[in-house]
Design goal:
The protein is of the alpha+beta class. Helices cover about 15% and strands about 35% of the residues. It has 8 helices and 37 strands. Strands 1-11-10-13-7-4-5 form a 7-stranded antiparallel β-sheet, with no helix packed on it. Strands 2, 17, 18, 19, 20 and 21 form a 6-stranded antiparallel β-sheet that branches. It has a 5-stranded parallel β-sheet with strand order 25-26-27-28-29, with helices on one face. Helix 1 runs parallel beside helix 2.
């Protein structure tokens, strides 16, 4: 196995990810964009030890756009046979080289690549520094011990493919090369390594890895100052950040002569009791688009002017939300979103769509049960989590980001769950988006229900249709309950008809919940002991909701009645039911497992989508369980 084909070692000597910044003060910044020497080889094994003939190439750029190889586009299929983690032996390679000057070597010196596809090996003055994968994720190397005062030579050997390419099967033109900014930083030896501006709607909370002089500004006005490694300042009458008014405060951090200046916003993301997305307590609807980094002349390499033009056009079209499909953007893009006002779903650099077509004539199916997808393989776990970590740590100070996304079209497996768990622990202030979890009907792992390519008609039907079968079962249960005299003065009560039903507007955006409320009125007939008949209304309220958080982690539910409860009086009663997917049924499958968890139950209430793995819950409400045990699983013949 070649070094770049090992998913458990996708970097060497790369600095730990940190918050994006370009430090000032005594620190030095040298942009290395411009003309570099370049040599292209159809196979990496053909690269000689000494390159005698060089072309020149602009950096940043994509070498296919400049005539080295033909441009290639593919949506689903990989551009090579699927044999993870191996890539073809004929692996194209581009070697970049340039010189730079260091007038005085006084601090720590770093080389930063903001985007390079797909794998880069870095050399300074002929000595190997390290390598990195993750095309759209920032990579930083400390090169202090490799540089000298005076002229230095920097060489970057870029491979077209590596094992990480299996995680980068996005639907776009496939390009290679150094396609984003690259630069040098020289910083004090004891500089701040990382800092965080923790978002909320009341105070500016700052955490540093080491003490510094902290200043907070509103425009040019100094609001507060403090020495330390943490500081919380409550702003009087704060102006909160939102997409309509993206107001930013400025934080300055000074240590050893270095000054880091970062703009931040006061804002809070939460879900209301009615399951609305709230920004600063105000219900917000997202009108969004996906954004691919696309230049009609330079491929993935967008100029500052092109980025700004994209965002201005979005503003003109009343777009307020952007999903960075399907990889993190350049930091300049995030800064513009902060300043111009966009809600951002920041997505990490993962898509493995091509595993659908790893076999010939295999159809279109995310067959995660095969355990042949990277998302389900243990040797890929570290790289999945690391790609999430690198994105979060780089962009954690951007107020525009309201959700972190695990990637796109990669199935949904244990490695995604590990990514989500890490992210929720690291940053509980934002929501987690995972479209693959929704596709697999496991949205308990994420915070939002997300499906692509749904028509408006199907979107409108999504929740009501999912509830329909559950309501059919409930109706049959109500009939049984009434027949047994649950809500009547005598045992001679029967359901005569269903008079009305009202479905309240379903709420889609909610942390760990999808909620719909249904009220329906029944007419009942009661026969007293004297033979008198009385027809009376019975009001039933059905709260159908999804308790997604911890649905499969039974240890989170100390009382099964949290999942299913029944209460009421003579004139009305309420059924609260956890619902999942398009159907509801009963089964003894898994009851023993539940019993081991301390659940006294004989049956499992299963909510499922047809053809997908059941999500099972125990319930211990005796009356309701006995009633539902008699309800046919296929109740679709009982119209509402």
């Amino acid at each position: 196995m070649r070094i770049y084909e090992n998913p458990q070692k996708t970097s060497e000597n790369r600095v730990k990810s940190r918050s994006y910044c370009i430090p000032g003060g005594v620190s030095e910044y040298m942009l290395l964009n411009g003309t570099w020497n370049f040599a292209y080889f159809a196979r990496d094994i053909d690269v000689p030890e000494t390159i005698e003939k060089w072309d020149s190439i602009p950096v940043p750029s994509c070498w296919q756009i400049l005539g080295y190889e033909n441009p290639n586009y593919t949506n689903v299929n990989y551009p090579y046979p699927v044999d993870q983690p191996y890539v073809p032996n004929d692996n194209p390679c581009g070697v970049y080289q340039r010189q730079f000057e260091i007038s005085q070597k006084w601090g720590k010196i770093y080389f930063v690549l903001e985007g390079v596809a797909s794998c880069a090996f870095v050399y300074v003055n002929g000595r190997y520094v390290g390598f990195t994968q993750g095309s759209h994720l920032q990579a930083e190397f400390e090169i202090t011990d490799f540089v000298v005062e005076g002229t230095n030579t920097l060489t970057v050997k870029v491979l077209k493919w590596c094992c990480g390419s299996y995680l980068e099967d996005q639907d776009f033109f496939r390009f290679s090369g150094i396609f984003r900014d690259c630069y040098l930083l020289q910083r004090p030896a004891d500089h701040i390594e990382d800092f965080e501006i923790i978002p909320n709607d009341k105070s500016i909370d700052i955490r540093l890895d080491k003490p510094a002089y902290i200043r907070i500004f509103d425009g040019e006005s100094l609001l507060a100052e403090e020495n330390g490694s943490s500081f919380s300042y409550t702003v009087k009458n704060p102006v909160l950040w939102n997409a309509e008014k993206p107001y930013l405060y400025r934080v300055e951090l000074e240590r050893s002569g270095e000054i880091i200046s970062r703009k931040g916003g006061l804002r809070k993301v939460e879900i209301s009791e009615n399951y609305e997305l709230l920004i600063n307590g105000v219900s917000v609807k997202l009108f969004g688009v996906n954004h691919h980094d696309t230049s009609k002349f330079r491929g993935w390499c967008q100029s500052d002017e092109e980025l700004l033009a994209d965002l201005k056009l979005m503003k003109e079209l009343n777009i307020n939300c952007i999903r960075t499909s399907h990889y993190p953007p350049t930091p300049k893009f995030m800064d513009l979103c902060d300043e111009m006002g966009f809600y951002v779903i920041c997505e990490t650099d993962i898509e493995t769509h091509g595993f659908i077509r790893r076999y010939a004539n295999s159809g279109y199916h995310f067959d995660m049960d095969s355990n042949e997808w990277p998302a389900t393989m243990g040797h890929w776990k570290q790289e999945f989590v690391e790609r999430m970590e690198r994105m979060v740590e780089t962009f954690k100070n951007s107020p525009s980001i309201i959700m972190w996304s695990t990637g796109n079209e990669s199935g949904h497996g244990s490695n995604h769950v590990a990514m989500i768990r890490w992210t929720k622990q690291r940053d509980p202030s934002r929501l987690i988006h995972c479209e693959d979890a929704s596709r697999k009907n496991q949205i308990h792992n994420a915070d939002v229900l997300s499906r692509m390519y749904l028509s408006m008609e199907n979107l409108e039907k999504l929740v009501p249709a999912a509830i329909d079968l559950a309501l059919r079962h409930v109706r049959l249960a109500v009939e049984k309950l009434l027949a047994e005299g649950y809500a009547a003065t005598t045992e001679n009560t029967s359901l005569i008809w269903l008079e009305s039903i009202k479905l309240h507007t379903p709420r889609f955006a909610a942390p760990s919940k999808l909620y719909t409320k249904a009220d329906f009125s029944l007419m009942t007939e009661t026969v007293s002991a004297g033979g008198n008949r009385q027809v009376a209304p019975l009001t039933v309220t059905l709260d159908v909701f999804e308790e997604l958080e911890g649905m499969l982690d039974l240890s989170l539910h100390s009382d099964p009645n949290e999942l299913w409860s029944l209460s009421g009086d003579e004139g009305s009663f309420t059924i609260r039911a956890a619902r999942y997917g398009h159907g509801v049924g009963l089964s003894q499958y898994g009851a023993a497992e539940m019993a081991e968890q301390g659940y006294a139950c004989e049956y499992i209430l299963g909510f499922y989508y047809p053809g997908c793995t059941n999500v099972r819950m125990a319930f211990a409400e005796k009356t309701l369980r006995e009633v539902l045990n008699t309800v046919p699983i296929n109740a679709t013949s009982a119209p509402l």
